[in-house]
């Protein structure tokens, strides 16, 4: 009798992989972030990546990180992957859901995560851990009882021919 496959993706690999794939849609030249929101029973509810809002052209709005004029940087225009994933959900409540994201959520996304009732955050990179934004984010999630932990990389390489 043939046995079941052994090298299938774990739930964590699957959802973080989906988050990373969503991030590949980002036009941000410096940081591409992807997010996947999952129900308690492991069903994908929503996805998102960082980009400008609908109607704000990727070709007309600025992607610069710095410069004298803040209005000529991406920061005042880009919607973060986590907020996009929350806003993309049209199915009702996200209460009790888990959120997979390739970069630790900032303080603004933490507010949205908490208010949406999301209870667990699984993140990959935490490259802005020392910034006030991420420190504030962790403080709010700690206070609100949102658990967060880093994704354990398995270093599995996934090859998809597109
Ligand atoms: O939580 C986040 N989610 C998210 O989507 N982003 C996006 C906003 C920007 O487009 C980009 C950050 O750009 P940069 O690393 O160049 O500062 O990542 C940034 C954060 C910050 O942690
Ligand atoms: Zn954010």
From TrEMBL:
Q: Which residues form the signal peptide?
A: none
Q: Which UniProt keywords apply?
A: Hydrolase, Metal-binding, Nucleotide biosynthesis, Zinc
**CDD domains attached here?**
deoxycytidylate_deaminase (cd01286)
Q: Which domain of life is it from?
A: Bacteria
Which Gene3D superfamilies does UniProt cross-reference here? Cytidine Deaminase, domain 2 (3.40.140.10)
Q: Which catalytic residues are annotated?
A: 82 (proton donor)
Record: residues binding Zn(2+): 80, 106, 109
Which InterPro entries does the record cross-reference, listed alphabetically? CMP_dCMP_dom, Cytidine_deaminase-like, dCMP_deaminase, dCMP_deaminase-rel, Deoxycytidylate_deaminase_dom
Gene Ontology biological process terms, A to Z: nucleotide biosynthetic process; pyrimidine nucleotide metabolic process
Q: Per its UniProt record, what PROSITE patterns does this chain match?
A: CYT_DCMP_DEAMINASES_2
Known cofactor(s): Zn(2+)
Q: Name one Pfam family in it.
A: dCMP_cyt_deam_1
Where is each CMP/dCMP-type deaminase domain found?
10-148
Q: What Gene Ontology molecular function terms does this protein carry?
A: dCMP deaminase activity; zinc ion binding
Q: Which GO terms describe its cellular component?
A: cytoplasm
| Protein name (record) | dCMP deaminase family protein
């Amino acid at each position: 009798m043939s046995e079941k496959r052994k090298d299938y993706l774990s739930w964590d690999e699957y959802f973080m992989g989906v988050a990373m794939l969503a991030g590949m849609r980002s036009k941000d030249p410096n940081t591409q972030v992807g997010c996947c929101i999952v129900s308690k029973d492991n069903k994908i509810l929503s996805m998102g990546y960082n980009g400008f809002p609908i109607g704000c052209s990727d070709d007309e709005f600025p992607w610069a990180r710095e410069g004298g004029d803040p209005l000529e940087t991406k920061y005042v225009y880009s919607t973060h992957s986590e907020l996009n994933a929350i806003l993309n959900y049209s199915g009702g409540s996200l209460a009790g859901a888990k959120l997979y994201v390739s970069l630790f959520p900032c303080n603004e996304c933490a507010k949205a995560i908490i208010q949406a009732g999301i209870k667990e955050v699984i993140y990959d990179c935490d490259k802005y851990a020392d910034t006030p934004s991420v420190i504030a984010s962790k403080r709010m999630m700690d206070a609100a009882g949102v658990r967060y932990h880093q994704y354990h990389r398995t270093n599995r390489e996934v090859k998809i021919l597109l």
